[in-house]
Write a structure and sequence with these properties.
This protein is an alpha/beta fold. Helix 3 (88-104) runs parallel beside helix 6 (175-182). It is globular, with a radius of gyration of 16 Å. 34% of the residues lie in helices and 17% in strands. The protein is built from six helices and seven strands; from the N terminus they run ααβββαβαβαββα. It has one domain (6-182): Glutaredoxin (3-Layer(aba) Sandwich).
Amino acid sequence: MQNIDRRQALGYIATGAAISTGLVSQTAQAQMQFPMMPFGGNRSGAEFPAVGQKLNMVDVPLLNGKTFTASQAKDQILVIYWWASWCPFCAVQSPLMEKLWQANRNKGLQMLTFSTDSRKEAAVGYLQKKGFTFPAAFMTPEMEAKYPKPRGLPSTAIIGRDGRVIKIESGMMNEFDVEDIAKLI
């Protein structure tokens, strides 16, 4: 049997509760594969830069076939958001992130999100079903080395106009937390 830590166990319990209460659809349940790292850090061993440190940006292929270029983040507030289609906490935060994106994408906000699903198809299907339009990439080992996921899921990092990390939030953000991001713009 695989050893899991308390946070991972709570993640599995929360996911089970979401399934049993109907928060997760039967279609999503059929496609669901519990990931190797539901609430832990990342498999690459790399660490996300600490608050105050500069994030070295690289271009990222998006799930819609486009590319998020590092230059898009220049002189902008950048929100990086890690999520999964099976995550009940992400199911609450993702609509808030979409609302933030829609309201501020033409006002100096950039967003780059990473699906941590085990299958790219699950991420694409989830985005389509929910109508989310925020820029979304699939977390590959190569991307994980460049944009390592902080501990927790969902996770959110705010990068300032100077390219330095302003804030890292592990776990679900509520509506007020997400509204505070807009105040940085």
